[in-house]
Amino acid sequence: MTLLNGFIARARRVVLILALLFLPAGAILAESGGIEVKSLVVNRVNIYAAPEAAGNPVYRLVNRFHRTTRQNTILRELNVSPGDVLHPDEVAELERNLRRLNIFASVSVRLVDDGTLEVSTRDRFSIIAGANGSFLGGVGEVGFTIGERNLLGSGDSASLSLRRNTADEIRGVFSYRDLHWLKAQQTALYRVGATEEGEFLQLQFSRPVKYRTDRSQWTAQVESVGQDIDYYEGGLSVVQVPEQRTVFGATYRWRSPGPTVSTRGIHLRFGNYDYDDVRGSQADSIEQPQDNSQILLSALLSREKTTQHRKVTSLDTLRFVQDLQFGVVRELRFGARVKRESSGRSTVRPVVSGSFVASTELKQNTFGKLAASFSTEVIEDKPSTNTSVGLKLYTRFSQRSTLAMRLDYRYADQDRILPTQYTLGESNGLRGYANSLLSGNRMLRLNVEQRYDLQRKLGFLDVGLVSFFDTGWMAPETDRTRRSGGVGVRLGSTALLGRAVIRMDVAFPFDADEVSPVYSAAVGQMFTF
Q1: For the chain, N or C: smaller number of CB within 10 Å?
Q2: What are phi and psi of 92, to 5 degrees?
Q3: pLDDT at residue 83, as a whole number
Q4: What is the mean pLDDT of the segment spanning 183-206?
Q5: What strands, in cross-sheet order, belong to the sheet with 116-123?
Q6: What is the pLDDT of residues 47-91, one digit of tens each?
Q7: For residues 453 and 437, is the Cβ–Cβ distance under 8 A?
């Protein structure tokens, strides 16, 4: 019996070895959840597919002024080669990464059983040309922009813009983003510009985390900015602090593998800050800051656990697919800031900051996100803290109807030479009132929107409707809240605007002596998940 059992065991091993030798590799890996990539097929479509463009001269004209994204650009972003083994969640990650570029109207990535990785993309309109404008809280802005979000199909973007508002503020900016700097996974950003407050320059080079298998990331940035730090009262700027700063910053992170990603890192920031005399009708309320140099060195620790990804539409976009990530992210930073003022005084200040973000699907088609952060710096033996807590809830009643809510609270300690000031008005969550009407160091804000996707088109644009209610409270104005409500239109197009949405609202203030409508138009939802 013992000899028979040994013979049977050896026979089983022989059968298993023969199966491993002769079964297709794809079938074997499929059992373990992964498939070896044998070949890559990329199907690229212009803004409008050939059958659509054939019968529409406007579609043909749009296609003619756009170069389809290059295959090399897509392959470089995928960073996959034959012989790699991919699991289903990694294939979904590749699709999300391509969609995140915001140069495609639609993206599909799938790995079939024979080992073929099939990638299908459809471009969005990427030329930026013409006049643009907005009207927010009684402040109008007009200007022009020329540029290209997908330069010659490379994924790079370049733009030049000039804007002027009704307050006679002028801003000109040229920017260029190199998607694959040095033909690799690094990204470079160059921005130069000028306003009536000063010139600015920004250079940023980074290797972001694109894949869960990435083990490190880094960012290096240099900026030189001239600006006025404004403090408001009743919607008017009453204090202006002219600042010229030059800052260098660098961050490096190491990531550990596993379902829960642990990250350790180091951050270095050096800055030089120069100030002119404080101006404005209430200039005496702000102490004149001294010119100074600062060095901040801090360590960081974080843990991230992703539980689920979801693809949805008609949440913050209309037809564009939006990627939701659920899980928990915690981060803690601690270090010290060395500050030397022009008077010769030097100080060393401990600095601690942290953040917590948790998002989940509470029940079917109900999504929630909780975010909290704080930063504390010891100034003259006394801690000075900024804190924020925010909650977002989305409930999809149907594919066409979504109830969205944002509730957040912010507090800023004022024991600083240049204190933090929050503002509330049309441009940041209190429609029906002028920009920066409320100001202070403690803010409570609630926005509720009922969003409807009409699933109808107005020319080339998808159309949605919104009814909304906003309320806000700001200290030191503690005697009353401000409330407003109204309706709006949302316009979108995956082919022309990608994930962007144009919003046009009319709001009515509920707490004003004279109830008159306030009209606004801008690109982007008031808040997003």
Answers
A1: N
A2: -65, -35
A3: 93
A4: 92
A5: 39-45, 116-123, 104-111
A6: 988 888 888 888 888 888 889 999 999 999 999 999 999 999 999
A7: no
Secondary structure percentages of the chain, helix, strand, coil, to 5: 15, 60, 30
Scan for tokens 């046009």, then name that residue: 504
Helices 71-78 and 88-100 meet at what angle, rounded to 10?
A: 130
**Cis before 476 (ω within 30):** yes
Written as six digits, the tokens of 371 are: 């975010």
Nearest CA among 331, 339, 322 for reference residue 304? 331
Distance of alpha carbon 154 from alpha carbon 164, whole angstroms: 31
DSSP state of 432: T
Q: What pLDDT is attached to residue 274?
A: 96
- Whether the per-residue pLDDT at 21 is higher than 70: the answer is no
What would the pLDDT profile of 126-162 be if each residue is shown by its tens digit?
887 765 555 555 556 677 789 999 999 999 999 998 8
How far out from the chain centre does Cα 141 lie?
23
CA distances to 32, 198, 431, 482 from 414, in Å: 58, 27, 27, 23
CB atoms within 10 A of CB 136: 21
**End-to-end CA, the chain:** 67
Number of alpha helices (DSSP H) and beta strands (DSSP E) in the chain: 6, 27
Answer whether 270's CB lies under 8 Å from 294's CB: yes
How far is 370 from 501, CA to CA, in rounded Å? 24
